[in-house]
Write a structure and sequence with these properties.
By secondary structure, the protein is an alpha+beta fold. It has one domain (about 30-135). It has helices spanning about 5-15, 30-35, 45-55, 95-105, 110-115, 130-140; strands spanning about 60, 65-70, 80, 85-90, 125.
Length: about 150
């Protein structure tokens, strides 16, 4: 039996019947396991972030729609984004750095870690594309807590 035949056999074993769907088991990310979820824009934390940024002049109503006025650090030029195209980005300290330097000392989803995650001072709205690319560019990994 070659590798291809073995793979086909394994695939067929996963299908218990033509009617049954085999579900993939999703592995929980270290981010969720250690810190929990990032609050959404509609949460208490998100509303406080939006209110603060509005007071700072970083969110304005333009043509009847709230817009983030954001200076692109790559170009130095201001850009506007509808709030639906933004994420709650950790600022000034990213989540991985916080976990690896401070949160890890308190343990996964400890009260201290959850308090940090729910503190509006630790967030700013950022364009979704920027927030996601910056996180990927960091290349940092969540360290496992010591038992």
């Amino acid at each position: 039996m070659n590798a291809g035949d073995f793979a086909k056999g394994a695939k067929n074993q996963l299908k218990k019947s033509s009617d049954e769907v085999v579900q993939k088991v999703r592995r929980v990310s270290k981010r969720l396991k250690y810190l929990g979820s990032t609050p959404g824009k509609a949460s208490r934390t998100g509303r406080e972030v939006i209110d603060r940024m509005r007071r700072e002049g970083k969110i304005r109503k333009i043509a009847g729609e709230d817009q983030l006025i954001w200076t692109n650090p790559r170009t130095g030029k201001p850009e506007m984004y509808p709030l639906k195209d933004t994420d709650m980005g950790h600022y000034p300290v990213d989540a991985v750095t916080y976990w690896n330097t401070t949160g890890i000392k308190h343990g996964p989803k400890s009260q201290e870690v959850r308090d940090w995650m729910l503190d509006p001072k630790n967030y700013e709205l950022q364009p979704s594309w920027y927030n996601r690319s910056e996180g990927a560019k960091l290349g940092a990994r969540y360290n496992d807590p010591k038992p």
